[in-house]
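Reviewers of the previous submission asked for a worked example of the structure-prediction workflow described in the proposal, so we include one complete record here. The input consisted solely of the amino acid sequence. No template or homolog information was supplied to the procedure at any stage.
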Amino acid sequence: MARTIQTLKNIAKIHRSKLLATFSLVALENVLILLYPLVGSFAVNAVLAGNVFNALVYALVVLIIWVVGSARRAVDTRAFVRIYADLPIKAIINEKQKGTTSSATAHANLARQFVAFFEEHLPILITASFSIVGSVVMLLIIEFWSGVIALTILILFLLILPSYTRKNDRLYFKLNNRLENEVHTIERIRNAELVKHYDLLSKIRIAISNREAVSFLVIGVVLSILFGVTLAILANKKVEAGHIYAVITYMWSFAMSLDDMPRLVEKFSELKDIGNRVEV
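From that input alone, the workflow returned the following structure tokens.
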């Protein structure tokens, strides 16, 4: 764990300016996304009131979000292409000094997972964190009891997170053990050994997939409670259409981001194990 965090810190330090530009845009994009349901609620009310100018503000906010998102994608491609080119070289040199070309190749492939984390999963993590926390806060402000239920769900999942993570760590330890030695297995070209190797890989990946499926189901159950209670509350209150739009949009934002979390936890478990194997 400590080695993985140190590796991530080293990558961030070496490529500080590139990553700062990318994640500043990620943060800005997420602030805008967090605010847009409120703007949308005003737009819905403006449409119902026949106020065209106020309704069109929503379209402007949508355009700004997409412009910022487009800029972020252009910047992060340039940043991560350079990091991709740099990181495997260090992993190959470090491993080549102590091992064979095949082991160096395997470690180079594993090392790329660190860059994939920065490029793909860290932005998702930032977005999910913004959305989950922001949605809970906004629900507490605009529909208090819905916010309380969402906060309770979040706390319950945080309590079971350590146990969930430990099981993921064990699965990814087994998976990366197989992947690290895959080149040696292929080089020996023994049919029975190859069959056993890929059979074990399949079983481990199925076990990981099963955990993700169960997580998805559990999240669906608790979210159905959130939506059901909230809609019951709204049905018994006199509220504007814009308010209903904002509440439901924040609940969906909470739901979609919560659904991303099991995959992110799995990715970090994978990364922790790779960090114990690869020097970059």
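The mean pLDDT is 81. We consider this example representative of the routine output the project will generate in years two and three.
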